[in-house]
Amino acid sequence: MESAELRRTYDELLAEVEAGGFGEPPPGQLSAEQIVAHLAANDELLSEATAAVLAGSPFAYYDLETIHHPQLDTLVAQCGGLDGLATLLRATSQKLCTLVDRLGPTADTPVDTHLREGFDLLVDEPLPWSRTLDLHTRVHLPKHLAQLRMLRPHPQPA
User: What pLDDT was estimated at residue 73?
Assistant: First the structure.
């Protein structure tokens, strides 16, 4: 398995983060900082699962969609805001991509996968690890990229 598409998706997302200029989120939604914190924390879980697959160890992957705002706020504070979070996300995404490049035939190893993407996607079953990583690349990251773009103020027509 190759990480080329995953790397491209992260590059696009990180370019958006580095552009900055985000406004306040709508009530009940994550801020730009919280979105990036969520992605970095989730990368760590994906990396742990990928390392377990490479080692031949059983592992279950639970996404962090339901992580509480206080945990995200703690990570935001530890990183010192959006710039520090972007640095963290760059490191966690690079680590994940490096592990993904090593998967080879083990990419099809079934991993108990539990994830939810709003109302669009609910998985609660073993999936080939490559499929979970594909969902991360094609669904999870683009969803958060769209959230970041919606946090950018739009000029009002004159």
Answer: 87
Strands 121-128 and 110-117 turn out to be antiparallel
Q: What is the pLDDT of residues 91-126, one digit of tens each?
A: 999 999 999 999 999 999 999 888 776 556 677 788
Considering just the CA atoms, what is the radius of gyration of the chain in Å? Answer: 16
The model's pTM? 0.89
Structural domain span for residue 136: 4-150
Q: Residue 156 falls within a domain, yes or no?
A: no
Listed in sequence order, the residues at least 6 apart from 100 whose beta carbon sits closer than 8 Å to its beta carbon are: 1, 2, 3, 6, 50, 133
In a domain, residue 69? The reply is: yes
Q: Is 37 within the bounds of a domain?
A: yes
Question: Do the domain assignments include residue 71?
Answer: yes
Number of independent structural domains in the chain: 1
Q: At residue 6, does pLDDT exceed 60?
A: yes
Asked if 93 and 36 count as a contact pair (C-beta separation under 8 A), the reply is no
